[in-house]
From TrEMBL:
The protein's name: Conserved oligomeric Golgi complex subunit 7
Membrane topology: Peripheral membrane protein
Main location: Golgi
InterPro entries the record matches: COG7
This protein's UniProt keywords: Golgi apparatus, Membrane, Protein transport, Transport
Length: 842
């Protein structure tokens, strides 16, 4: 019964009696009365308590009896510890005494051991010397046996013995003998190795490989393997020369170096009609080489498991190096053939990009790139520095062309710019000038997007062919092409000046001054023109403003795109990191893995070499210049085309000058020699009715000028209409129309101000102004003022001064000029008028 009570809960620090009693009640049998259950539980607890008390009393009595015994044991242990401490101290003292004498003994033993080791080394050397002498005496016998493996082992032992003996004069002849014997063994092994390699004899090849490695002549194995395996690959290439590949090389073969004269002599095939172009043949060559290398890679991985990762890449490097000169020769030959068929650069037949030397190079380079990617996949397990060597060899035939990329691109773009038909016709006679102007301007405007597309294509070509490493040459070329193109546009402007009969007005000084010597020619040309032709000329010239706007916007957009391309190129090439490593190691000695890592993108199977960085690593000066350029591209004020923006601004100024001169030409012609008209000095005519002797209407030259100014808004309509092109949204189109209207109004004011300025210059040239002349001039100025008001222009102060002074009687003019109201007049002009009317202003 007592075992049914769990005593562990009573030892818990958080024991709660009430909870324990409640739990005991809940655990009773439902049929047991609660009183009986509690009574039984109380009895159990009481019995357990009595048992615990009895056991505690017994244990206490037993413990009290054991205390005296434990005390005696503790005293005994204390005495034993003191005795042990005394014994250990005595032992330590004896050890310290013995330490001094033992050190001398140990040193003596160490000297004896050194002597023993030296004696053993001398013994071994004597044995090696004896063995070397025996090997030297028996080596000829070994060679005579024909056992090449045993001979290699003997020579290896001889070299080991020599390395142990060192430089001993008595054995100097043995060292020379060993070198001769190793070369002799190599000469014996190499022919057999060649035969084994040709016939793919795996076991023989491995045995011969072991022999050469054993005597330390692995380099001979590598050379022999490359020489033997190179022949089939060279044969594939030389099929092109023999005619099997179908390619015929031209007279450039005769210009090959003398060492290659034998090869060059075989580069001509009689039947040129049946030949295959180099572009069509090259992929076949790459495919066959790739197939051969795949087979070599599999076979060598079995035959040379420790060396195949260096042997096969070396084979490819030697193959590409051996055909590099011939490769370049065939590129030149293909370029010559293309040019001979398609005509000179810039001709009509060369408009196809593929029919250019640069187009051929990019096509071939793309094929080589495909081959290079396949090689990277095949050689994915070799080291990065070795892969860099392989890729350099593959792309080596293009290096010279990449160095000349700027020249090639300049030649191509120059031809494309020169092939653009800017005019297409010579100056026509009077009566058709308007058609000539309109057609010329249309061709000018059409040429701008053509040239822009050519420049954009040049950027793509640079990235495809050089990877951006020749960006500096590209920018110089583009700048030069823009100079050429804008120069051609400027030449067209000069020819348009002749067509429009304003070729004399070449600067602002002529435009604003008196052009007396040219008046007769100008008036005669204008008089020969009909109103329709004159209108057509004006309308055609106004379209040149659109040409200038198109050139400016296209140039700005292209330059912004070019800067963005340079920024992306800088992020891709990471030239600053390359330059930081370029002085620490080269890409081909493996001393700086960080530098080699710059050539690659990705890892493992996705490893891809950036050939632009690989190329720049060997050209540190070019890398530094390019790095400076790409860093400058990040500046907001950077101009990728350094000189182009200035040339565009100059062209816009020339366009504005031409438009202004055409619009003002009629006014200039009508106002020519106005200051010399006799009406200004004519005296009043006597008549019976005392009628005014001056004309009640404005003079013909003023009337003509005023009518022309009033027609300006109508003539400037093409500018306003041009702002609302089709295809625009309403908001954009509305803004464009408003800008065009403002632009047209600005031109109207500009021409009106120029006409007024020409007129006032003529008025200042009048020498004498009679009363009759003053009245006529007043009528003229009044008419012109009304025209200016109709155009919403303010009458200039000079004209207002003329008008005010001319309306005052001659005898009162001096007083009028001196009055306070004269402060609203131009004083210099007022004094000039007094001088014209022979009045003293003082």
């Amino acid at each position: 019964m007592m075992t049914m009570v769990d005593l562990s809960c009573f030892a818990d620090e958080k024991f709660n009696p009430k909870a324990w009693v409640n739990e005991a009640c809940r655990s009773r049998h439902p049929e047991d009365p609660i009183d009986n259950h509690l009574s039984d539980l109380e009895t159990k607890l009481q019995l357990i308590s009595e048992n615990i008390a009895s056991s505690l009393e017994e244990q206490s009595s037993s413990s009290l009896l054991k205390v005296p015994r434990a005390s005696r044991e503790i005293i005994r242990l204390r005495d034993d510890a003191a005795s042990l401490r005394s014994t250990v101290s005595s032992i330590l003292t004896k050890l310290k005494q013995a330490e001094g004498s033992c050190a001398e003994s140990v040193a003596a033993l160490a000297r004896v051991d050194v002597v023993k080791q030296r004696m053993e080394a001398a013994y071994g050397t004597l044995q090696d010397a004896a063995g070397l002498a025996q090997l030297s005496a028996n080596v000829e016998t070994v060679f005579a046996s024909g056992d090449l493996a045993r001979a290699a082992e003997t020579l290896a032992n001889m070299r080991r013995c020599l390395s142990v003996i060192g430089e001993v004069p008595e054995f100097s002849n043995v060292r020379q003998q060993l070198e001769i014997l190793e070369d002799r063994l190599e000469g014996t092994v190499l022919p057999r190795l060649s035969d084994a390699l040709l016939q793919r004899k795996l076991e023989s090849t491995q045995n011969l490989h072991d022999i050469l490695v054993m005597i330390g002549h692995y380099g001979a194995l590598e050379k022999q393997y490359t020489r033997v395996r190179l022949k089939p690959l060279r044969r594939v290439w030389e099929e092109c020369d023999s005619g099997k590949g179908g390619l015929t090389l031209n007279k450039l073969a005769a210009e090959e170096k003398p060492d290659d004269s034998k090869q060059a002599s075989s580069l001509t095939v009689a039947d040129s009609n049946s030949r295959t172009s180099f572009v069509d043949w090259l992929p076949q060559f790459y495919d066959e080489v790739l197939l051969s290398l795949e087979q070599e890679w599999k076979w060598c991985s079995i035959a040379f498991p420790e060396n195949y990762k260096s042997l096969v890449p070396k084979l490819l490097i030697e193959t590409m190096s051996s055909i590099s000169t011939s490769f370049s020769l065939r590129i030149e030959s293909s370029s010559y053939d293309i040019l001979s068929v398609s005509g000179p650069v810039g001709g009509q037949k060369s408009e196809n990009f593929e029919h250019t030397q640069l187009g051929l190079l990019i096509t071939l380079h793309s094929m080589t790139g495909t081959f290079a990617r396949n090689i990277q996949h095949l050689f994915d397990s070799i080291e990065a520095k070795d892969m860099a060597k392989v890729l350099n060899a593959i792309y080596s035939p293009y290096e010279g062309y990449k160095e000349r990329y700027g020249e090639l691109e300049l030649e191509l773009l120059t031809g494309q710019v020169l092939s653009v038909d800017f005019r297409g016709a010579v100056s026509r006679s009077v009566g058709a000038r308007g058609v000539e102007v309109s057609e010329t301007v249309r061709r000018m405007e059409a040429s701008i997007p053509i040239v822009a597309l050519s420049l954009e294509s040049a950027v793509e070509r640079c990235l495809n062919f050089t990877g951006g490493s020749e960006a500096e040459a590209l920018l110089q070329t583009l700048d030069e092409i823009m100079r050429l193109f804008i120069g051609k546009l400027q030449e067209i402007l000069k020819s348009l000046r002749m067509i429009c009969a304003v070729d004399h007005a070449t600067d602002s000084s002529k435009r604003e001054g008196n052009v007396e010597g040219l008046a007769a020619k100008e008036v005669s040309v204008l008089d020969m023109m009909s109103d329709e032709e004159e209108w057509a000329i004006v309308q055609g010239v106004l379209q040149i403003l659109a040409v200038a706007e198109s050139l400016s916007s296209r140039t700005s957009v292209f330059e912004a795109t070019l800067c963005a391309t340079l920024k992306r190129l800088g992020e891709r090439l990471r030239l600053s990191t390359l330059l930081a490593n370029i002085n620490q190691a080269t890409a081909f000695n493996g001393e700086c893995s960080a530098a080699v890592g710059l050539f690659t993108r990705g890892s493992g199977a996705s490893l891809s070499f950036d050939m632009a960085v690989l190329r720049l690593f060997d050209k540190p000066d070019k890398a530094r210049r390019l790095n400076t350029l790409l860093e400058q591209a990040n500046d907001t004020g950077f101009h990728a085309l350094a000189q182009t923006s200035g040339r565009v601004a100059l062209f816009i100024d020339l366009v504005n000058d031409l438009v202004y001169d055409v619009l003002i030409a009629k006014v200039r012609a009508r106002l020519n020699n106005v200051a010399l008209l006799p009406v200004w000095g004519a005296e009043k005519e006597e008549n019976a009715f005392d009628l005014p002797s001056f004309s009640a209407y404005a003079s013909p030259h003023v009337t003509s000028m005023g009518e022309y100014l009033l027609t300006l808004p109508q003539q400037l309509e093409p500018i306003m209409i041009g702002g609302g092109g089709s295809g625009q949204t309403s908001d954009i189109a509305g803004d464009s129309i408003n800008d065009s209207q403002f632009f047209a109004t600005e031109w109207m004011f500009k021409v009106a101000e120029g006409a007024t300025s020409l007129y006032t210059d003529q008025l200042r040239g009048i020498q004498f102004l009679s009363d009759r002349g003053a009245q006529q001039l007043s009528a003229d100025i009044d008419y012109l003022s009304k025209v200016l008001s109709a155009l919403s222009m303010q009458v200039p102060l000079v004209l207002a001064t003329f008008q005010a002074c001319l309306q005052v009687p001659k005898e009162k003019l001096a007083e009028f000029v001196k009055l306070d109201s004269s402060k609203y007049l131009d004083s210099a002009t007022a004094k000039l008028i007094c001088k014209m009317r022979r009045i003293s202003a003082d």
